[in-house]
Amino acid sequence: MSTTIAQPLARYAAWRRAGDFIFLSGVIAVDPTAKRIVRGYDDIPADAAQRLGQTGEFSTDIKEGPILAQSWWVLEHIRLTVEAAGGQMSDIVKLVQYFKHLDHFPHYSRVRKLFFPDQPPVSTVVEVSGMLPSSDILIEVEATAYLPQS
User: Fold this and answer.
1) What does pTM read for this prediction?
2) Residue 5 falls within a domain, yes or no?
3) Where is 55: in which H helix or E strand?
4) C-alpha distances out from residue 50 to 23, 65, 109, 116, 144, Å
5) Which residue among 45, 97, 136, 144 is buried most deeply as judged by most CB within 10 Å?
6) Which DSSP letter does residue 130 get?
7) Tell me, what CATH number does 48's domain have?
């Protein structure tokens, strides 16, 4: 697993500061360095898969694993990116979440609570017909953080 900040798949910035705000580009569950899409529990650390509820039962894990693993990957890389910018998850004030299937939202919401255990950010949820680079991408999340400059 990559432990770096979210990396763009094309020529754009992963994040940018504008005054006291940090704007993150949409993050998807892709490691562009390894050219690998997160497709399930096997693509994330075992401890994260366990926290997300991996059962070891193929029929359950194959159904829930892709959205749970992608949700964790995306939020983990948002966390790493915000930290690289000098902030923390509690500095995120807004999330825009794009889903290929809105029925995945409850699964994502369980994962989001792990990253925002206290006050969650304001939120927009949108269903879209598809996302780059492949139909295996189920979720994309963009974030805005408030980080006053010293």
Assistant:
1) 0.91
2) no
3) none
4) 31, 11, 17, 18, 29
5) 97
6) -
7) 3.30.1330.40
- Residue 62 contacts by C-beta under 8 Å, 6 or more apart in sequence? 40
Band of pLDDT at residue 9, cut at 50, 70 and 90: low
| The total number of structural domains that make up the chain | 1
Q: How buried is residue 80: exposed, middle or buried, by Cβ count under 10 Å (0-12/13-18/19+)?
A: middle
Q: 5 or 25: whose pLDDT is higher?
A: 25
Q: Is residue 9 part of a domain?
A: no
Q: Write the CB contacts of 59 (distance below 8 Å, at least 6 apart in sequence).
A: none
Instruction: Report helix angle 58-84 to 105-115, nearest 10.
Output: 40
Is residue 81 a part of any domain in this protein?
yes
User: What's the whole-number mean pLDDT along residues 76-85?
Assistant: 94
d(CA 80, CA 131): 22
For residue 117, give both structure tokens. 């255990």
What's the domain range around 45?
15-146
